[in-house]
Amino acid sequence: MSTSQSNPAPGGLRSAVKRKTTADKKAQSTNAMPLSTRSAGAGGSSSTMMKLFTDEAQGLRVDPLVVLFLAVGFIFSVIILHVFAKITGKFTSS
Amino acid sequence: MGGFRLLDLVQFFLPVLPEIESPVEKIAFDEKVVYTVGGAFIFLLGQLPLYGLVSNAQFAIVDPLYNIRSIFAMEKGTLLELGLLPVITAAFIWQVAAGLRLINANLGLRYDRELFQTGQKLTAFALAVVYAAGLIYSGYYDNVIRGYDPLKDSTPIGSYVLLFTQIVSWSWLVTLMVEIFDKGYSFGSGVLSFLTLQVATNTVADLIGIEVFKVFNSNKSESYGALMNLVRNFSLFSPKKNAATIWHAFTRIQLPNLNQFYISLLTIGGVILLQNYRIEIPIRSTKVRGMSNVFPIRLLYTGGLPVLFAFTVLANVQVFGYFSTVVLSKLGAPQLLVSLLGKFELNPTSNNLNLKTGILFYLSNSTSLLQTLLSPIKTVVYAFSIVVLSVWFANKWSYISGSSPKDIAKQFKDQGISISGKRDISIAKELARVIPVASVSGAFLLAGLAVAGELLGGLGKGVATVVGVSSAFGVLEEFMLEYQQSGGSQFTSALSGLQ
């Protein structure tokens, strides 16, 4: 490194200045880029709350009630399977 | 821009992933309560046993993950087998990656934010598939599948598919319910609400659960609740037997014991105590003369999240480590390599798979106080890794979550607030002197509390309590804020009108 210290900047002084301004610009833009969705001003995880889904993305739109009913429906189908298993188990074992 | 972005991969999945509609208008307070209670109730229904297993399968399952269950609401042998582990892991992966700028996403742009969010959901879905497939592949269910004898029968593909479908679909539905909570249909965040709920219900059930189970490998049956069992077996006339009963109440490992309960109780007290510490920064209005107030900065600035993060990392190490040992030994890797990674040994009284040696052993918690004292190196390594992970995360999180000193300074400026005796420009600097210190020392104390519970043999209960109680505070705070802003609940005012 000691040899390169005395050398002039590669490409001359002009390009050194140019590179410095681009580096500055880059630093500025990275500073401006928000690090989380909340600091971008759009909700999301705060310091104590972990939130995942706060924007409305494109996709298969569903109503929240539909999901809740689906969940209940799924639970009931598993319960029905259990009940059937109990009934058939009674008949086969006896 | 050019170049390849991870986010662009998500784009292909956009049309097929379900997306909950955001509320059209602000959800009323009462409606939020209904959504919260309803969602919570449906979440708890997930403790239904899986179809296709023998009855009381939770005692017969050979369980390598027993020490992380209570932290992530993973219920053995039920639909909630994976609990919240996929969602929490996905959230931490994406949000920490964005905060450290490991992924190329400009969250200031709406489209990038949407992709980012869908990426989290996709990861949660994919992780559920991976965990479920790994569990089934590792033969986790083999000795509890109904009508299947591992020694005689061929691979029960049908049962495997059935189990896989149940676990994965419930995990996906839980992810979507988290989304309902997050999107403003309810208070606070979905993940933390569900965790709190699970911890609260389990703590009560652990103490006074009245269900009676036949104990595995023994001819006795015991109550689920630790105190219940103690009371049931207590007899006034034989003090000698009572001593044994009390000893048993503190040390039983198949069902919850009193030791875990007392650790939880002390932890609750500790978290409440820590929650109260705060620094109050005097603020004044820049617009109205003479208006002054205080802005509190809590010691637990990042809440329970650092502890949750540390245990998420370790839990994933444990889970994937376990899968790797299974895969390696099934592929016929040399025994030395497998035991270098981690050697599991079955504990016949509890059917838990305990780690004996290997890298994973040093990153696992103690099963009892005795083990803590007998293997000091492991104790130190474990405690150290938890504390370091928590502190690192707390420091980062105080900058990358939307509550960094810079963000708060911006909020102050928007609301016309300034710190008394300071100029506008130096607000961020002043806050930066307090916030990281508060969050780091808060995380350190909280992690210490969690680790202390683990070293005493809490088997994850203490950690779950730390996370649960601190999340409960967050949710409660949001609830009260909402309550005051909406001018109280219409339901309660209707009720009070009746009197």
From TrEMBL, chain A:
Keywords, alphabetical: Endoplasmic reticulum, Membrane, Protein transport, Translocation, Transmembrane, Transmembrane helix, Transport
Transmembrane segments: 65-85
Keyword Transmembrane: yes
Domain of life: Eukaryota
Pfam families from the UniProt entry: Sec61_beta
UniProt similarity note: Belongs to the SEC61-beta family.
Protein's UniProt name: Protein transport protein Sec61 subunit beta
Higher taxonomy: Eukaryota, Fungi, Dikarya, Ascomycota, Saccharomycotina
UniProtKB/TrEMBL annotation, chain B:
GO cellular component, one term: Ssh1 translocon complex
InterPro entries xref list: SecY/SEC61-alpha (IPR002208), SecY_dom_sf (IPR023201), Translocon_Sec61/SecY_plug_dom (IPR019561)
Alphabetic keyword roster: Membrane, Transmembrane, Transmembrane helix
Kinase as UniProt keyword: no
Sequence intervals crossing the membrane: 33-54, 82-102, 122-140, 160-178, 190-210, 261-279, 299-323, 373-394, 431-452
Pfam families: Plug_translocon, SecY
Biological processes per GO annotation: protein transport; SRP-dependent cotranslational protein targeting to membrane
Domain Translocon Sec61/SecY plug: 42-77
Domain of life: Eukaryota
GO MF annotation, one: signal sequence binding
Family assignment from sequence similarity: Belongs to the SecY/SEC61-alpha family.
PANTHER family (alphabetical): SECY/SEC61-ALPHA FAMILY MEMBER (PTHR10906)
Protein name: Translocon Sec61/SecY plug domain-containing protein
Lineage: Eukaryota, Fungi, Dikarya, Ascomycota, Saccharomycotina
